[in-house]
Design brief:
about 0% strand; single chain; globular
Amino acid sequence: RLNTALELKPDYVPALTALTNLDLSEGRIDAARDRYEDAAKRFPANDGVWLGLAGVQGASGMRPSRIVPTLEKAVAANPSSVRLHIALVQTQLRAGNARGAVAAARKADVRFKDDPAVTEALGLAEQATGELEIAVATFGRLVAMRPDDATPLLRLAEGQRALKDTSRALATVEKAVAAAPNSIEAHRTRALILAELGRRADAFAASRTLQKHIPTHPAGHILEGEVAFGFKDFAAAETALRKAVAQRKSLETVGA
C-alpha cells in the first residue's frame, strides 16, 4: 500500500516516512537515506521531504554540522517555509555553532517578523551566544505576541535570570505560573528563583504548590528534593526523593 501511495504521489511524506522507518528498523540506513535524497532532488519545493532527509541523516548518526548543509539547501529551495528556517537554526545550535544559528535566525526574523516560533528560535540562539540583553529584548517581543502563553514568559524569565535580574525574573515567572498552573517547568523555575533569592520557606512552599496542582505526579516531590539539596538540607532532600520514587512506582503499578 505504501509503494502504491508513492506511485500515485511520489512526494507523499507519510508514505516516505513509513518506508524509511522500515528501512531503518531493518538496518538499511543507506536505502533510507537514498530514498529521501532522491525525493529531495525530484521535489525540491516540498519542505517535508527536506525535513525527512535531515531526520534520516540524524538517525543514521550523522553529526549535526554535516546536516546543516542539507538544511541550507532546503531553505534556499523553500525560502517561505518557516519550519525549515527553524530546523536550520536548531541544527546549528546542536552543531555548537551559536553564531551560525543567530545569523540564520535573524534572516528568518526579517522574513517572518511576526512569527512567534521564529522569534523564539532567535531568542534562544542569541542566548546561546551570550547576547543576553538582546535575547531578553527578543523574548519581550515574544511575550507581546503571545501574552497569555506561559512559554514566552518562561523564556523571558530565564533570560532575566541569566542576566542576574532575579527580582524581575520572579515577577515574570509568577505570570507564567498564573497562565499555566499545571506547568511543571513554571513551578520549578519559580521555586529555583526563590531559592536563589534566599527565600527558603517560599521556595519549599512553591514545590508543595506543585504537589497540590499535580498530586499524582512525582515532579512536586522531585522539586522539593532539588530545593532542599540546594540549601544543603540533605536529609529533607532524601525524604522528598524517596516520596517521588514511591509515587512513581505507584503510578507504574496502576498503569501495569
